[in-house]
């Protein structure tokens, strides 16, 4: 994790490990607009907020059932 302008950012590899998905899957999420990130130079970085927003949009609120 890096600190950039007083905000902590995760690398693409760290983000893929946190989400339990491949690096290619992270790239796909970025391409499809489902995960926000910042490209600094050649490398992608993701704030805690970016990751939380992605998780929140794919996780149903507590007390709701998953529909089949």
TrEMBL record:
One of its GO terms (molecular function) is DNA binding. It comes from the Bacteria. Residues 9-58 form the Helix-turn-helix domain. InterPro entries: HTH_17, SinI_DNA-bd. Signal peptide: none annotated. This is Helix-turn-helix domain protein. It comes from Candidatus Atribacter allofermentans. The lineage of its organism: Bacteria, Pseudomonadati, Atribacterota, Atribacteria, Atribacterales.
């Amino acid at each position: 994790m890096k600190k950039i302008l007083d905000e902590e950012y995760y690398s693409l590899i760290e983000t893929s490990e946190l989400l339990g998905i491949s690096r290619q899957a992270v790239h796909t999420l970025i391409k499809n607009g489902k995960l926000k990130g910042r490209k600094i130079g050649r490398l992608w970085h993701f704030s805690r907020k970016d990751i939380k927003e992605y998780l929140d949009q794919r996780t149903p609120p507590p007390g709701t059932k998953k529909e089949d």
